[in-house]
Structure formats: structure tokens, C-alpha cells
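Checklist before submission:
- one chain only
- standard amino acids only
- sequence pasted in full

Submission:
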Amino acid sequence: MPIASLTSALFPSRFAERSPWRKLRCGLVLVCTSLLLSACASKLPTQVDRPVSTAQPPAASSPLVQISQQRQKAESKAGPGVSGFEILAGAQAAYGARLALVQGAQHTLDVQYYAIHADASTARLLESVVNAARRGVRVRVLLDDFHGTGRNAQVMRLAFEPNIEMRMFNPLPGDRDSPVSRMWNAATDFQRAQQRMHNKLFLADNAMGIMGGRNLGDAYFDNDESSNFLDTDVLVMGPAVRDLSSSFDSYWNNERAYPVQSLISKQALEDMQQAYQARPSKGGDDDAMDSTPEPTARNTSGGALPSPPDGEPRPGGAISPEQRERAWDMQPVDLKTVPLVWAHSVVMADAPSKIPAVDSDGQTNPLSAAPGVLDNKRLAQLRALAETRNPGHSPSADSVVDGLVQLLGYAKKDLLIVSPYFVPGESMRQAFKDAVQRGVRVRILTNSLSSNDAPIAHIGYARHRETLLRDGVELYELVSDESDLRAAFGLGSGQNSFREGRRVMLHSKVLVLDGQLLVVGSMNLDQRSKLQNTEIAVLVRSRKLSGQAAGMIEKGLESAAWHVVLKDGKLLWEAPQNTRLKDQTTEPDSSLPLRLMLKIISPFTPDSLL
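Returned file contents:
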């Protein structure tokens, strides 16, 4: 769209009924603006050296390999081919497991994330990663580029540490210290900029790993001063880790992964750092940045771009002494004694080609996009795990979300789903309706408007809410007041509980089918995860593990979630049991201006963009 057309579309009243002189003056302004923005525009490098590397076979000398093999032999009764799993729900377990993997790694660390926020929790983890590299561990860090700007760009300095390689996936061109430049380049290639690598992996020695919903940052480890996330990962030992490593390799060696050195120099990062330090003190992020101990991670959260396109959170704020102390007080878990469930599993991963590449002219090449990696072999494994009644059927699937929608068709009794951003669309909604008609109880927990860190994503859920209820789906929305969450989701007390006075937001992505199949991953049940982002998930066949997850979720439904129902044809939010809360007839704890704004923009926001 030309600049004039774009501007008039956004501000039509400013271009109506103009005199000839005013039209000329506006035209000159538009020309100057266009020239300025064109000057800001840049292209991605085309001659990029991407040395191919792959995961190393598990080495017998690795303590992590030894622990995994010894535990499998001693604890597993299912024979070879099974993997060990532990659900990581609390902050201490999730953070401590990552510390244990970094400290135990002897050969390789592979880290893949949508976002690594520069804050106190990340600083401690990155310090451990640098120390691992200095003792000879080969480190590969693959990061989606959306947050690679502003102070968060300092994370890219890892690439200049010996024995660490770092690549940015699907990078956005433009000055990393200029929001105008980055936004302009994103706008001129809007479709590609919307598509992000949403996968989350933390793998050590190709023997143990962590995957699930968490990014790296204070808010994911109950260490943010204003708001924190309910999230879920799984610790994995055994053969499933090799499948996770294979997925990592496919992204690492993909043409969309750009080595940091091809995008920015160490000197440019240092210049950016010095510019921040030279700014007048305001007692906020800049001061906190200078007080973080580790030079390779000396920055705080925040960035130069607005909220990311998939509704992923971007917590901000200064690093307080309490945050720093809490991050440094976290202790690694004991990998020899963490409670594991050994079970058969299937790793489901979108292909990196789901995101289009950039051709030699720096433009998006839509022909490079390809379906996901869920081929018939993977789906056959899914059918075996789900005990499908149609063994001769061989469906196809284009994405992790498509595979999960197909999995819904195998439910016989119960579906329990947690999806923080829930935008079902017509095909997914029909799958839920069909399940209910088969006699399946379908319960879905998502964010309420007040707990949603991306309120615009709530539009896509709200427009389907009444239809879902009429179809027989049971809907629950998280209460944002953490004071009612102390007994919910198995968080208990102490370090694993949320502190009073801080907002709580849902970020877990979990599915439990018939009490015997558990899915944990990075995907939301929304159109963005289906069409735009790449995702990864693991499906585990285990009644014990499924029961653990279902128990935590059901406890939360009872004590920490609004039960949304239709009463006399109108929506009613029933308060959770044994709380001070009362039933509500409007979106709980939300302001009238916010509700009106979302209602106004709803017709202009299709599900595919939410």
C-alpha cells in the first residue's frame, strides 16, 4: 500500500476537504516521510556463512547420560524406547531444572527460544551457560529475532563468547536501537514479520532436556515485580530427547537462521550499551542494567517494539535487589532424585519451512513455505498412542495444532485443555462440538480478560464463547488475583507460590485426553499457532502423568477460575469455590473503556491475526 493510501486509511479526517495548497503541503510531507522511511529501510544479508552442525550422540562419559541410563534401567518397567518425564509447574522446579542441566552438561547445550528477556533470572542462567562454554561445552543458542532489539539485543553478545554460537531466526532488518526503523521494515514485509519461531527447548548432552511453554525471563519464574505467569514445562530424559535435538538441528541449519555476526557487530552492541549507560539516571531500567553482575547479560527486560504479534508477554521493569537475590538463591534440582514417570511418547514439531524464507533480493519468497513435519509415520504413532478405532485411516496434518485437532477426534470420555490464548476458529470449534456429541466432557481453561497480557487476543475467544457454551463445551477463565492461587496448580507455599499483590497470567499449554494421554508444548489453540508460528509439543501416553496434570488443572478450576455459563441466554461468570469473589455478569475485573475498545475493533481483527 502506498504511503499516502496507508496514512489516509489510518487518519481519513486529515485528508478530507483539503484546499489545493493544503493538499500540496500534505503531499510534500508525505514525500519527505517516505524518503525518510526509505532511508531507514534495509535488507537482510544475502551472503551468509552457516556452518552445518548437528547434535552429538550421547556420550558415555556424560554424567547426564549416566544418570538417565541408570534411572531408566532401575525405574522403567516398560522396556526400551520409553522416556522419563517430570512436570515442571512451580518456579523453583522449572528454574532449578535448567540450572541443573547447564551445570551437569559436559559436551553440548542447545537452547532454542521465542524470547530471552534480559533480566535477573536470565542473567543467572546466562552466567551458567558462559561458564559451561568456558569449561569446553559446545553451546548453540537459537533465538527468534522479534525481541532482538533495544536492551534485549545485549543478549546477542553471547555470540562473541568462545565456544558459543548464536543464531537469530527469521530476523527483521533495521537498526536494533531504532523502533521506527524496525517497525517500518516489519510493515513492509508484514506477513513474514508476523510469523515467528515459537519453539522452546533447553537440551543438555543430547540426554536430558526441558520443553514446554516457558520463555526465559523473570515473569516465567515468579520473579517479576508486577506480574507473573502460570506456566508448565516437562523435564525429559531418554530417547525423546534425541527427537527434540533433531528438531533443534532442523531449525539451526535452516536458511532462516542467521548467525548473529551477520546481523550486528560486537562493537555495535558495545556502542548501544555505552549509549544506555550515558543516559541520565531515572532510577529505572538503565540503573538496573549496570548493577547486574555478569557482563554477558548486563541488561534488563524491555525492548523498542510494541507488544509482539502473537500476544506473547514482554515483562518490563527495573531489576530490584530482591529480584536479583531471588534469582541467585534458586538452587539446581537433584537430577538423580527428581520424580520421573517413564512412558512412551511422540515429539510433534512444525517444520521450520512453515515460515517463508527471504530470497536474494531480500524479499519474502512465499513458495518456500511448506507443511509441517507431521507426516503419516508420526500420525501413525499418534493413533497407536490414542488407541484409535480406525487403524486403517491415514490422515494428513500441516502443523502441530492440526495434529492436536485430529487428536481430539480420538477422545472417548474426557478432554481437559489449557490454552492461554484460545482462538478456536470454525474447524476447531466443530471438533469440540463433535466431541461433545460423542459424549465427551470438554473443559477448557483460558485467560480471562483481566488476566490476559494481550487483551486483543481475547477478541478471538470472546466471539466464539457463546457458541462454544451452546455446543456443550465447559469454559473456565483464570482469576487474575493471585491471592486465590496459593493452593492452585500444585504450587503450594514458599518459593513455588505466587507472592501477594502481583498479577497472575496464564501461559501453560496442556491437553489431557481420557486420563491417559498428556500433551505439553509451546502451542496455543489459536489461529496464530496454527497458521503463523512454528511450534513443538510432546505427547506422552501415561495414566500416572496424565493424572498428575489433570489433578493440578482441576484444582485450579475449582479454586482459581471463573466458570463461564449461559443463564437465561446471557453470560454469567460463576465465582470459584471458597473464595471472597462473587458471580459477575460482565468480564470480571475489567474496565468499561477496555471492553468498549475491544468491541469496536473486533470487526477489524480476524481470527487469523490473533
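Reviewer check: The chain has 18 helices and 21 strands.
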